[in-house]
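In this section we walk through a basic example: taking a raw amino acid sequence and producing a predicted 3D structure, encoded as discrete structure tokens. The instruction is simple. Fold the sequence below.
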Amino acid sequence: MAVGIGRRQFMSALGSVAATWPLAARAQQPVMPVIGLLNSISPEAAETRMNAFRRGLGEGGFVQGRNVAFEFRWANGKYDLLPALAADLVARKVDVIFASGGPPATLAAAAATNTIPIVFISGVNPVTAGIAKSFNHPAGNATGFMLFTVAGWTKRLELAAQIAEKDSAVGVLLNPKNPKADPSVEEMQQAAQAQGRKLAFVSASTTGEIEMGLESLANARVGAAIISPDPFFVEQTALIVTRALQHKLPIVCEWSDEAKAGGLMSYGIDLLDDYHQAGVYTARLLKGERPSDLPIVQPTKFEFVINLKTAKALGLTIRPTLLAIADEVIE
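The resulting token sequence is shown next.
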């Protein structure tokens, strides 16, 4: 009898222990860190860039779905949504925020938190914007990669001037809802004055305004137009290059993707390399490094792309001196 009672007691105890095994196993599993991805553009427009980010993250030992989770927040070119999207990521208590797609995402993330580490890719100057104390020692919770420089914009102006008639103005397409995407208008004017050129500015923040703006520049007979490296304009690359060709308007862009899509020329940084390095930075933060110890990287490498197919469609002949210095010529 005693043996029977002991067995029942043993089985009951064993069942109680077994019932706790799933809970114990879950308690022992490490919590997967979460990266909040705040982007001004759409998943489709950012796909190639995000793949570069994943590669950098993988080099640091983190693979999406295996040992790190992603929380995506896309603004799809609607910048006014970004503050709420950033606040949502903060409420979600993500471990790192990766803010990309231009200044609006960076500024929204920085305004939403001063504790969660932020890695940004943006044209905003983080020091003048109050996000960091300095480039070498950010001192706050944000670090990353600054994309645009006055020198880069000045080079695009030089390229536009080389394909425009001597006395013609150069057009500039700007998004008034993203004033920090370029050097200031004053800096643009100073660069143009140094080159003896006049600038014709048009503003656009909708597809309809893009169409009207490009038509306005064509009617004004500008020699060429510079397209601001604005995230919304990236979303509308197909529209911009199509309308520019219809109006026989040569355009100079920031990103090589825009030249490959039909823009005449592009001059700007290697954006995919910056996304790759942003992935590396994010992995370092997940491992415990502080953003204040990671210097903000400024652009040093630029790509120059010429689309000869577009030049032919526009009836333009590109000078051999330009072709000789191009990093890529699309024929």
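Looking at the output, two observations stand out. Residues 34-148+271-293 form a domain with the Rossmann fold fold (CATH 3.40.50.2300). The two ends are 94 Å apart (CA to CA). In the next section we compare this with other chains.
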